[in-house]
Amino acid sequence: MPLKDITILILTFNRYKYLERILTYYKLCDVNCKIIILDSSTNKDIKNNRLKSLLNQEQIAWLKFPADTFISCKIREGLEKVDTQFSVLCADDDFVLPKGIARCVDFLNFNPSYISAQGARMIHQLLPNGTVKRNGWAPYRKSIINKCPEKRFLALFEKQYASYPYYAVYRRDAQLEIWKNASSLLANGFMEILPVALSLIHGKTKILKTMYLSSEANLFSWATKEKFNDLYKENLVKQYQIIIEESLQSFICGYQMSKGTLKVLLKPFKWQETNNGLCNKISRRIFAISERIKVALNPKIYQAAELKLVDSLIKEFNLGDEEIVASRENY
Predict the structure, then answer these.
(1) How confident is the model at residue 177 (pLDDT cuts 50, 70, 90)?
(2) How many whole angstroms separate alpha carbon 205 and alpha carbon 143?
(3) What percentage of the chain carries pLDDT values higher than 90?
(4) Pick from 193, 203, 146, 142: nearest CA to 166
C-alpha cells in the first residue's frame, strides 16, 4: 500500500520479538512508506537474522539511543529526521493499520483546520495456536473539534480522555513542535498526557469511521491493578515468547524503580503500610526469574509462528467500514 506522504515511528525497548512482528506485518501488507525505529534497548546486538533482514529494508531507518534516554527525547529526535508531510507514532506491541493511516492522511489533506486524525481502536488476543482473535473494542471516542483551544483542552478531561490522539496521524511540523515543548520535561510519567494536551491546544483532532489501531490484550497492567495474582494468566504466558520478554522487562524496570525505596520499605515500623507493595515487587521478580528458567530449559514451548500469526492479524484487521460503524453504537 503506497503511503509516500507519511513516516511511521516505532518505539521499542528490549522487545525485539515485538519489533520483528510489527515489521513483518508491514512487509506482508506491502507498506512501502518510510519507517523509523526509535530503539533504546539495553543490548542492540541483534542475532536474529530475520529481524536483521527486516531492519535492512531500504525504507527503514534504525535510530539507536542509550538505554536511559527519555522517551520524549527519542520521539523529538525521531521527528527531526522525518521529511514527509505526515507522521505517526506506533508502539512496538500495537498495530497502526495501513488502511486507517491512508484514510487519515486523505482526511488531513482535505481538512487543513485539523492537526490530527485517527479511527476506531480494537483489542486483540493471542491464541495458543499462533493466531489472534478480536477481543473487543477500546473505549468509545469522539472527535474534539471545538474552535476554542481552551475548550478542546478541557474536553479531554470531560469524559473524553479515551479520545486522546497520542497514536494519531499528525501533520509532521505540528507534531515536532509539540514534542520539542514536551521534551523539556524529563519525566516519563507525563509523556502521554502532556503532548496530548499540547496537541489539543494546537488544533482539532478527528475520529474517523474506519479501523485504525489494534492493541494486544496484555498480561500486565500495573496502573490499574494492585495484586499481582490478579494479573497472572498462565494461558497467556505460554502463548508467545514476547510475553516472557515483557515479564523480564517489567522485572528489570521494577527493580530499577524500587532501588531508592527499599530502605523505606524494609523499616520495621513501616512494615504494615508497605507489606503489600513489597510483596508485589518480590512476586514480580520471582515470576520473571522462573519464566526465564522455563525458557532456558525448554525454549520450544515459546517458539513463535510469526508468519502464521501475522497472516491471522491481516485477516482479523481487514474489517470494512460498515462493519466498524455497526459494531460501535452511536459512533
Answers:
(1) very high
(2) 6
(3) 30
(4) 193
Q: Contact at 8 Å (CB) between 301 and 294?
A: yes
* 251 band by pLDDT with thresholds 50, 70 and 90: very low
pLDDT tens-place string over residues 81-110: 999 999 999 998 889 999 899 999 999 999
As a whole number of angstroms, the distance between CA 302 and CA 307 comes to 15
pLDDT at 43 over 60: yes
- In the chain, the domains with their CATH numbers are 2-216 (3.90.550.10), 271-330 (no CATH)
Give the integer Cα–Cα distance in Å for 64 and 44. Answer: 8
Least confident of 43-57, 207-221, 317-331: 317-331
Q: What is the pLDDT of residue 47?
A: 79
Report the predicted TM-score, pTM, of the whole model to 2 decimal places.
Answer: 0.71
Rounded to 10 degrees, the C-alpha dihedral 252/257/262/264 comes to -160
User: CA-CA distance, 20 to 37, in Å (whole number)?
Assistant: 11
In contact, 77 and 92? CB cutoff 8 Å: no
182 CB contacts (<8 Å, ≥6 apart)?
72, 76, 190, 191, 194, 195, 198
What are the phi and psi torsion angles at 169 (to 5°)? Answer: -80, 130
CA 7, CA 24: separation in Å to the nearest integer?
17
CB neighbour class for 98 (10 Å; exposed up to 12, middle 13-18, buried from 19): buried
* Measured distance CA(199)–CA(169) in Å, rounded: 12
Give which of 127, 124, 114, 106 is closest to 236, Cα–Cα.
Answer: 127
Question: Nearest 5°: phi and psi at 91?
Answer: -70, 155
